[in-house]
Specification:
About 45% of the residues lie in helices and about 15% in strands. The protein is α/β, with parallel strands linked by helices. It is globular. It starts with a strand and ends in a 19-residue tail after the last helix. The strands form two sheets. Strands 3-2-1-4-5-6-9 form a seven-stranded parallel sheet, with helices on both faces. A two-stranded parallel ribbon has the order 7-8. The protein has a single domain, classed as Rossmann fold, CATH 3.40.50.720. The protein is built from eight helices and nine strands.
Length: about 270
């Protein structure tokens, strides 16, 4: 019997690349997206085996919506072996602007509450089965706060902490070899979102290359992985960089697009 991967944000970018990688590895896939018609058309165009995929419509920012999609998946395909909370948004913000406070609320509703709501329907079944992987897509941007990225950086920092907490919960519930929690931190990934960025993107990689490395990390049972590895080195340096030097290095960096200025979505930093 094929294993099952449940993937949010499957209508583009990293989500589609992950769906294709898992399908090619023999998994059945449950594809979650707001744009269901486009996602279905993509699956057909890619030649995915019609018996091994289904699309579920949901808005991750609305907890009841994604929870119901998860419950429907359980009824139609069973409890997944891998759940990847990939859906997210990245929008620049300026705290001096009142409308950007709403942007921050929207970002946390999608990137954080939406992640917990994505995992929620599957916890009971995975714990009872004593197996499975819950995968949270964070970002290297969650390591330090970048100018103009207040909402995104803080939301991804919260993803890292949340997944760490959840990992402890699952280990207590199912033991060392039970339900695993995997935190993945992409660096810069080439997607329609990042092509809008107004700053340099070192170690840029394709969504397909990221998906391949992510698949390997999940299959290997890793709990935390920065992809690509070069950005892992950058992440370690960022952690120890003194504030004065960090501020100086980032002082002239271009800001991320605010709402209405560019593409918003989950594409890796």
């Amino acid at each position: 019997m094929n294993r099952l991967a449940f993937i949010t944000g499957a209508s583009s970018g990293i989500g589609q690349a992950l769906a294709l990688r898992f399908h090619r590895a023999g998994y059945n896939v449950a594809l979650v997206a707001r744009r269901t018609t486009e996602t279905e058309a993509w699956a057909v165009a890619q030649g995915l085996d019609a018996a091994r995929w289904r699309v579920y419509g949901a808005d991750v920012a609305v907890a009841d919506s994604i929870v119901e999609a998860g419950r429907l998946c359980i009824r139609q395909q069973g409890v997944p072996d891998v759940v990847i909370a990939n859906a997210g948004i990245s929008i620049g913000m300026d705290t001096a602007m009142r409308e950007d406070i709403d942007v921050m609320a929207q970002t946390f509703a999608t990137n954080n509450i939406g992640m917990a709501a994505t995992f929620h329907p599957f916890i009971e079944g995975m714990v009872a089965r004593r197996s499975g992987a819950l995968v949270g897509i964070a970002s290297v941007a969650g390591i330090r706060g970048l100018p103009g990225h207040g909402a995104y950086c803080s939301s991804k920092a919260a993803v890292i902490s949340y997944c760490e907490s959840l990992r402890g919960d699952m280990r207590r519930a199912t033991g060392r070899d039970g339900v695993r929690v995997v935190t993945l931190l992409p660096g810069y990934i080439d997607t329609p979102l990042t092509r809008e960025n107004r700053y340099s993107m070192p170690f840029l990689m394709t969504a397909e290359a990221f998906a391949d490395e992510a698949f390997k990390a999940i299959e290997a049972g890793m709990s935390y992985r920065v992809i690509p590895w070069q950005m892992g080195v950058v992440a370690r340096l960022l952690r120890v960089l003194p504030n004065a030097l960090f501020d100086k290095v980032l002082s002239g960096r271009a800001r991320k697009h605010r709402k209405g200025e560019g593409v918003q979505g989950n594409g890796g930093s």
